[in-house]
Batch of 4 targets.
Target 1
Amino acid sequence: MTACADPEGSVGGILCRAGQLLRAAAIDSPRLEARLLLGEAMGVDLAALLRDPRAPVPPGAATRFGAMLRRRLAHEPMGFILGRQGFWTLELEVSPDTLIPRADSEAVVEAALQGPAPVRVLDLGTGTGCLLLAVLSEHPGAFGVGVDLSPGAAALAARNAAATGLRDRCSFLAGSWAAALAGGFDLVLSNPPYIETAAIPGLMPEVAVHEPARALDGGPDGLDAYRLIVADLPRLLLPRGRAVLELGQGQGPAVAGLARAAGLVVLGTHADLGGVERALVLQQG
């Protein structure tokens, strides 16, 4: 490794050595991640962290940083190490009970916001509650229900609702999709499992090893969850109600075909920032 200019035990020295280790472990953005971890360990923001690279790091902070760095070098996701992740305009708690919210999923929110303001919103496979809470934050007159198979995920989503000031406008419950619910929703959201079972071991270890398999595995062709959700949408949606479903890359035509077979109208798709068709918009006829 290249020698670091700042003293060992200083902010700059620790960041330099940590960045080298993260780079060697094939971690993207190693310098940024080292800064985020050290800032978290020291309880300071990035501006304060970088103000004096030669400043010593207190022993307690150095110990905390070392523990977090070892976790990241083992490819544990940053979100799980920090315990939080930004999504839309919200900062959300995350845990191994759920997928970590991704910027790609904001395409679902953008697509949902392009339609009429909903009154009752349902989020199937809610995870952290990110989709539902983002939509509710933009529609102050709406009320939402989030459902997840994992009780831990439903509890986490409820904590996020409280932390974002939305607790009085939503409820979360553990269950199998919408089996326990009657209809009457203006808008249904979902980011279902859509990875083909055989493809999961080939994903980056942050996902394949650390994120919950039940939230990833979409069955042999990746469409198992879509079949269940789409078949239930005619019962769940009000007349002219809409559904916005997150898509895996290239899945748009197949999921649209399932929707048409169920009697739904396909309104179109919405791309993520990478130009990938990420959200499919459907309507009750």
Target 2
Amino acid sequence: MTLSINNISVDILGSSILKNINFQTNKGEIFCLIGTSGAGKSTLLRALNRLQSISKGEIHLNGQSIYKMTPQSLRKSAVMILQTPSLFEGTVEDNILFGVKLNGSYDKTDSKTVARSLLEKVGLETKLLDRNASTLSVGQQQRVSIARAIAMKPTILLCDEITSALDPQSTLHIQELLVTLKREEKLTIILVTHNMDLVQQIADRVGLLIDGKLVEVSPVNEFFNNPTTELGKNFLSTIA
């Protein structure tokens, strides 16, 4: 078990956004959070590394309350990747090494080697290292974002709709990359997405959120072939 989410709720401005959420993630699995728009998926993802405060409940990472960790330590272990690549003006190398430089966790003498290795891992040519990141395609920028995330050697990647702005070919690249990271790095990946084809291709388990409630958690094949709740059946009927 990597993350344990126990009875958490989130209230914002008097509205109940998340209601008594419970689930656990396993090391080296892809867990997809799915559901209707406005169901609370992104809010839940943000709560997992304290970008969103919870109103009650407990969240543990590797057995430790995330509220007993410093934000910096938590966000080094549980790294968020956003829908729109959040790169800054500078080279690809600068962007990849940004987090590890802040944490002082790299040897300056081998920074180019580290950045080159990470770029290769996400399937990009190393000749891009000295390019300004803003000149890359959106799909390439998203892979640079993932390289920057895994440079931190995290336990978990928190991915919020990271393929929604991409073309089909770039989406396929990201899909293959996430599966590779799960297999080779034993990363736990929590992915919020509306792309059900992607879910069926890469997820180990899915969690269905409806109106702030986690109504079903199932292995991916079981969910799509035989959902156990009426809400699950209704959800699938809307996307068929």
Target 3
Amino acid sequence: MPVLEPYGVPPRVFAEQLDCLQRFGFRFVSAEEALRSLEGDGELPRRAVLVTFDDCYDDLLYAALPILEERGIPAVAFAVSGRVGDSNAWDEAIGAPRLALLDTAGLQELSRRGVEIGSHSRSHYRLATLSDSEIDQEIIGSLADLEAAGLARPRLLAYPYGNYDERVTTATARAGLRAAFTTYPGHVGRRSLRHQLPRIEILRHDVGLRFLLKVAMGSQWLARRRRVTAALGLSGLRAHVRGRT
């Protein structure tokens, strides 16, 4: 099985996942709504979901965006600013195929059509393994890069590999980012730390009841898979949609 295959959700499956959530009463929210709630300036609906994408592969524009637009669903896409228009070089060491990333025009098009562009660092390094100055370069540098590309200065960040420590979260807050996402599975609640937010990673095989359980229960879904419960607060739903079946 190719290294990245589990992470490549076919467009048909992605559409079914979104439709499933809507059918069961989940409500898709924007980054602005999520941020206001996190900062105590607004209430989210029950079963709120924020859709996020890491890396910004080029088929996000032609495979995922039309599906989102058809349903009026907002999303956030996290770009690796030093690799814009290039490829996922960070995956080559594990034998992954070379995949194209969106170029500047592609990111601008996403933004124009309602997808907020966040930062996924400058180089996709494991941030907690870097020196303090290198962490700043990766975070602050990525914000400057994306702003120089004609995009709004990012206000959200996703840590590459979900890798962070106290130095990284401190640097993220110091850079003015209003929130940051990890890959730790779970739901966001009122007590969640804004620069250590959990998400629910959605994979190719997450369909049907398995998918519902995963989203509804977050980190508890395996232990409690016998019944679906209402999702509380914000579910940070993370997906990679590949433009192939």
Target 4
Amino acid sequence: MKRYILTGTPGSGKTSLLHALKRQGYSVVEEAATDIITLEHGRGNLEPWRRANFIDMITSLQKMRQIEASMFPDESQIYDRSPICTLALSRYLGYPPSDCLLEELERIERENIYQRQVFFLEHLGFCQPTEARKITFEESLLFEKIHAETYASLGYNLIKVAPEAISQRVHRIINWMNNG
């Protein structure tokens, strides 16, 4: 099975692109961080990223989703972010990587979980705040840089996906997966 990562700065269109790929019949795995933030907001914690276990909560959900998705008979899967993104988030927030995150990074490397080619969506020139996304455009550019550096430092190759219409981005990604 081929597992592709779709990543990029917050607000780069990952979720919209992921949903478009799903409509095309591709197996997709949703992002974990947004779901953790939404869950914590529901519990009254408006800044869950300040909690000591925030990174571990994301990592655990990512691992659970990846293991569940491995049971599907799909030839390929597309993941909205990965534990490598969680490492980038940890670095962005100034947290040392937790044992939970380090163990998961070791597991995905040892088991060769993800393709080494990663679809990296370039920013759209703005970042729209949401309930889960409280980051400015300027902050998102720093986060984008940390993401790119983190993936490169772990030996992943970024396939940059330029900002264009979703249909064009979908076509480029499908083309690359079929011919790459």
